[in-house]
Design brief:
This protein is α/β, with parallel strands linked by helices. Helix content is 41%, strand content 12%. It is globular and about 50 Å long.
Length: 286
Amino acid sequence: MANKLTQSALKRLTGLQALPQPSIVSLRHPVVLMHGFGVGGSFRRNGHLHDEAMHLRSRGVRAYAPNVAPYDTVAARSEMWENRLTRILDETGDDALTLVAHSMGGLDARYLIRERGWHDVVGALVTVSTPHRGSSVAHLVLEQPEVVRRAIVDMADWLGAHILEDGSADAHATLEQLTPEYVQNVFNPAVPNHPDVQYWSFGCQAGKGTSVPIDPVFRYLNAYLFDREGPNDGIVSVRSARWGTYLDTVEADHARQVGISSSLAARFDANQFYTSICRRLADAGF
């Protein structure tokens, strides 16, 4: 009798079900996920966006998520990114890359493209909650009493110098580079978009002024930034994140965007989000 059972009947009897196969994303070139300021996204993981890169690989994307100094300047980080990207090109044998950058990583990517000649390699840059017009949160840290500010900067410099084999740090100078005055009056005029590269951007919001819960760690920063720049994700405002072709406002705080969650924060699937970005890129021919 058993030999008369259909395959589907056998599966029902044994409780086995065919697992759905992950849909493949067909991108022409490798994708590099570039992280932002700080080490928060690296705790208990191999890097800020490592998990998301591994998920993309399961969807057929040649995805990479290297790490650079978390508390150093754009110029210093960009030199490290250049080394990482060169190795990726050597490893893959490809002659082009697509960059998807979170937070400060987007400023690094813009600098790489315009100032270090990577427009010859990068066809598109997608930024997620990048402070293209700076963040008032940088002011909040810099305006703390000297003893508090010095303690924060010293700790960041120590972590930045030791977390990587080639680590370096200059947290105070980096915070100054993230202020609205510096980004808008110095960085942006010096680092305009390159005409050969497509620039896409996402803003993100949660907390005050929205219906999206925010992780408690961001509540004070979220309110502080809202009063100065409007809806934000706890670190970067939607207004600051708009750059190039603006694609959407995502309902997620700054930590959720790199896959860090708490039970009190809104639901957001970082893996699904970065996969959706790669689908857009594939549809555009990258």
